[in-house]
Amino acid sequence: MRQQVVASWSGGKDSCLSLALAQDSGMMVSHLLNILNEDGVTSCTHGLSSELMRAQAKALGLPLIQLVTNGFRYEADFKRCLNELKTQGVDGGVFGNGDVDRQWIDCVCREAGMSAHLPLEGMTKDRILKEFISRGFEAIVVTTRANVMSEEWLGRKLDADFLKAWDNVRREKNISRAAEAGAYHTTVLGGPLFQKTLKIVESKKVLDDGFWYLNILKVE
Predict the structure, then answer these.
(1) What CATH number matches the domain at 4-117, 3.40.50.620, 3.30.70.790, 3.40.50.720, 3.40.350.10?
(2) Which InterPro entries match (predicted)?
């Protein structure tokens, strides 16, 4: 019998590739789980709008759970959510953040009676990016660290040209593989798992606390 799992969803390339790899391995993804800031409007990880998360989930044809929390309640709220899913027959979790604390994930899943799966574990960031692109997913850059990548990178598509340009930036600014985490974040708009490709119809570029953001205001 196929294992029923919930997949953590940030809206970016890592969570999307993890979802694809989980399904490739035979897991049945029953829900996507998206963590929102206490305002209930933006995601904790990439600062993307809750509306965009819902549009992605709808395009993927998967139910979306949006867990509203804060730094103080995060672990308790996360455990409560997993426990509720366990009562619905979900017995595993898929997590896409390559930098996630494996020990913590294993612990909270074990307490809920679930197994933890990190499909990207052991993969380099380069391999993740190339695998994502090679599968035909469509994604764009939505956040950049301002001292590394200018606002011109916002909205740029992840493709072969992006790979070359990003390699040039790393060389020019002498960015090590270990230090590149957080230099940019992405959001996925379409690809093999999607029933439709999302189109951005309204957005705004914002500079805040050393980061450029592409605030996506409306998609269809």
Answers:
(1) 3.40.50.620
(2) Diphthami_syn_dom, DPH6/MJ0570, Rossmann-like_a/b/a_fold
Render pLDDT for 161-201 as a digit per residue (tens, 0 to 9).
999 999 999 999 888 766 677 899 999 999 999 999 999 99
Structure tokens at 134: 């090679």
Query: pTM of the prediction?
Result: 0.95
- CA–CA separation, 65 and 57 (whole Å): 10
Question: Which of 162, 159, 137, 160 shows the shortest CA–CA distance to 149?
Answer: 162
Q: How many CB atoms lie within 10 A of CB 57?
A: 19
User: What is the rounded end-to-end Cα distance, in angstroms, of the chain?
Assistant: 37
125-219 CATH, one of 3.30.70.20, 3.40.50.720, 3.90.1490.10, 3.20.20.70:
3.90.1490.10
